[in-house]
Design brief:
With 437 residues, the protein is an alpha+beta fold. It has 3 domains: 166 residues, no CATH class; 87 residues; 130 residues, Heat Shock Protein 90 (2-Layer Sandwich). The chain has 11 helices and 8 strands. A hairpin with a 5-residue loop joins strand 7 and strand 8. Helix 1 runs antiparallel to helix 5, helix 9 runs parallel beside helix 10 and helix 10 runs antiparallel to helix 11.
Length: 437
């Protein structure tokens, strides 16, 4: 069900409940009004009869004349008056009252809902001849019910009109809201399709405008991330090509020349009068040199000792290698032995992150001390590399730092960098802890 249908359905349900509640209140008020009006009319009629009778002289003829006038009166509003003597002789029987056309249009259900019991009030009059006559005042609420029905219809239709106007205004506002929602959805589809340069317009409704600003901010962040990923991918390909060039050059310069020398010495050994011992000694030296070159190339490509000796020994070897190359820099490694059960998939990333951090320290930090802390805490692997170098305010991350952040986030971890001018750099990386099964 769409949002428009849901809201319209709830509005209609609310309108029906309001109309039912209003009808109940109106009928209850109409019933009370009819009852009060009938009581008021009877009381007024009785008071007038009493007043008129008290104003008459005690003459029997005048009393009879006054009673005959009352008996011959036409039914008045709500009331029917009849006179009965002590012989049960009813002198006027104009009851029931005449119902006009307007009263006939009143629905029976409304009449039953607001109808009250007929009220009859009797007033005894003693005549001088000793007889007693009774004046009966009977009330009929049909006139008041007809008026109440007319007022109820006017109230009902005015309520319906107001609800229709309210429904129309709500739909106008809702149409404006739907236009904003459709515009936001269109923008999200554009972003989902990869069009990160799409910018949502300004909206008059503050809530939608706030949503649009957040989406525009998200689009900007995605656009920036896309640029960084593209730059990182280009840098990665450049590094691959550089490594291949270096490897090709080392293979040509070291391996090629050494193999050529070994071949030449082997040919020399075939000649008579050759100092075989000196030649073979030279071949051994060349082979030892090739072994060093190959081991260095293998370390560059992949830490061979990691699957064999474990993460701790591999990191210690890495630190010793950097210590040998950087005599003026003091390295301090602290390693948690409980990480020896860490899976190889995480261990290689720990090694590469530490390797990249140390490379940055040696090349850029101009530091005298660097501390490496690799520990297990709260079920996660924590890597902290801190130096006391010059540091600086970083407006953007270099490719080395970007690659570390990508490693951490791709594994579901976190990367944090703190760098302050003349206060060194502090890199904190959090990775998940997995064990090999």
């Amino acid at each position: 069900m769409s949002l428009r249908s849901l809201i319209n359905l709830r509005i209609i349900a609310s309108v029906i409940l309001i109309l039912i509640f209003s009808a109940i209140i109106t009928i209850w008020q109409a019933r009370n009004s009819v009852e009060k009006e009938i009581h008021s009319s009877i009381n007024l009629a009785v008071q007038m009869i009493e007043f008129g009778f008290n104003q008459l002289p005690p003459s029997s003829e005048e009393n009879d004349t006054w009673l005959q006038k009352i008996a011959t009166m036409q039914p008045v509003r709500h009331l029917h008056i009849s006179i009965e003597d002590d012989k049960n002789d009813l002198q006027n029987t104009n009851y029931p009252l005449h119902i006009d056309d307007e009263q006939r249009t009143t629905p029976r259900w409304f009449i039953k809902a607001v109808m009250v019991d007929f009220f009859i009030h009797n007033y005894d009059i003693k005549i001088e001849d000793g007889s007693t006559k009774t004046i009966f005042v009977t009330a009929n609420p049909m006139d008041e019910i007809s008026e109440a029905w007319g007022e109820t219809k006017a109230y009902f239709w005015s309520t319906v009109l107001m609800l229709l106007i309210m429904f129309f205004m709500v739909n106008l506002v809702f149409n404006s809201m739907l236009q904003s929602v459709n515009s936001i959805l269109s923008g999200l589809r554009q972003i989902r399709s990869g069009h990160f340069f799409y910018v949502l317009p300004h909206f008059k409704i503050s809530e939608f405008d706030a949503i649009a600003k957040e989406i525009n901010g998200m689009s900007l962040a995605l656009r920036t991330a896309q640029k960084n990923n593209q730059a990182l991918a280009r840098h990665t390909m450049q590094i691959q090509e550089t490594e291949r060039q270096n490897m090709s050059r080392e293979l040509h310069d070291e391996m090629g020349q050494s193999l050529t020398a070994i071949k030449a010495m082997a040919v020399t050994c075939q000649q008579p009068d050759t100092d075989v011992k000196a030649v073979t000694s030279s071949i051994v030296d060349i082979c030892n040199h090739l072994s060093v070159v190959v081991r260095s190339m293998m370390k560059t490509l992949h830490p061979v000792s990691l699957p064999e000796l474990g993460l701790g020994a591999t990191l210690s070897e890495l630190v010793r290698e950097w210590q040998r190359c950087s005599s003026g820099l003091q390295f301090d490694l602290s390693y948690d032995v409980s990480l020896e059960k860490l899976s190889y998939a995480i261990s290689i990333h720990v090694y590469r992150i530490v390797q990249e951090c140390l490379t940055n320290v040696v090349r850029h930090a101009n530091a005298s001390e660097v501390t490496i802390l690799v520990t297990k805490r709260e079920g996660k692997v924590w890597i902290t590399v801190s130096d006391n170098g010059m540091g600086k305010q970083l407006n953007s991350l270099g490719f080395g730092l970007l690659s570390m952040r990508e490693r951490a986030e791709n594994l579901g971890g976190q990367f944090t960098l703190e760098s302050t001018q003349n206060s060194g750099v502090n890199v904190v990386v959090q990775l998940p802890y997995w064990e090999d099964k």
